[in-house]
Amino acid sequence: MTTPPSLEIENVTLSFGGIHALDDVSFTVEPGSLHALIGPNGAGKSSCFNVICGVYRANSGQVRLGDTVLSGLPAHKLAGLGVGRAFQNAALSPGSTVLDNVMLGRHSLTKGGFLACGLRLTRKTERKHAARAAEICDFLGIGDLVHTPVGALPYGAIKRVDIARALAVEPVILLLDEPAAGMNASETAELASTIREVRDELGISILLVEHDMGLVMGIADRVTVLDFGKRIADGTPAEVQADPNVVKAYLGVEA
Ligand SMILES: Nc1ncnc2c1ncn2[C@@H]1O[C@H](COP(=O)(O)OP(=O)(O)OP(=O)(O)O)[C@@H](O)[C@H]1O
């Protein structure tokens, strides 16, 4: 297993009119680690996620994966560079099967993509990609659902399909935006152990953007905390939990 490159977020600033969504934010996702980005409502987590995956362009600062500068690249280029991402509102095709949705993630791995290749994609190649997509579904515990339309699945399974699609690009880093949003307690606990397995068994670095401090504290190696667009803490889960600035940001009171 080769060591993945680190993801560097360096002095990133993002404004919407007069609102500083991100104010000089820096942190590093170390190779093979599970790094959580947390903060209260409006702290800037989604803005940061969107800057990293090319949806928003930062006013200043840089995002790098190893030596590759990601800032300024369009979102669709990132998959080919080893960045997999799953969104808060899984943008899946509900009428298509689980396997067909996950196969869309294989798109970036074929020269020019499936659409460009059209009929030139050989059956053998397609079978190879379908087998890998099914293997990823097995890994995520949805292997028995590959022929089920996504629209017929319970919410927890839909989120897994979205993660499977992100893993189908064979990423070196997986970006997860509030994957537990809308899940019940047992779905959240199962998801937490799956995320841990992605790190431990696949060796993929993970950036987990999450509102819920409770979820990340048990699984993250390192935690960055944002509040009002600023980085207010960065450390191990125990360090940030004991940080008075973090307690104040979450509870609105001095520790
Ligand atoms: N597209 C936008 N246009 C204008 N302001 C925005 C936009 N997106 C975010 N903001 C503002 O930027 C700030 C950070 O918002 P962001 O959604 O990144 O926070 P968040 O930490 O993800 O919050 P939540 O946990 O509520 O999703 C907020 O003040 C928000 O109102």
**Which molecules other than protein and nucleic acid are bound?**
adenosine-5'-triphosphate
Number of helices: 10
Please indicate the percent range of residues in DSSP E strands (runs of 2 or more): 15-25%
Task: Write out the strand line-up for the largest beta sheet, numbering strands in chain order.
Answer: 6-7-8-3-9-10
Q: Specify the CATH class of the largest domain.
A: Alpha Beta
Return the CATH topology of the largest domain: Rossmann fold
Mean pLDDT: 88
Our Rg estimate from Cα atoms comes to: 18 Å
The outline comes out as: globular
Any idea what the CATH superfamily of the largest domain is called?
Answer: P-loop containing nucleotide triphosphate hydrolases
Strand count, sense and closure of the main sheet?
6 strands, mixed
| Structural class determined from secondary elements | alpha/beta
Brief overview, please?
One of its GO terms (molecular function) is ATP binding. This protein has 255 residues and is α/β, with parallel strands linked by helices.
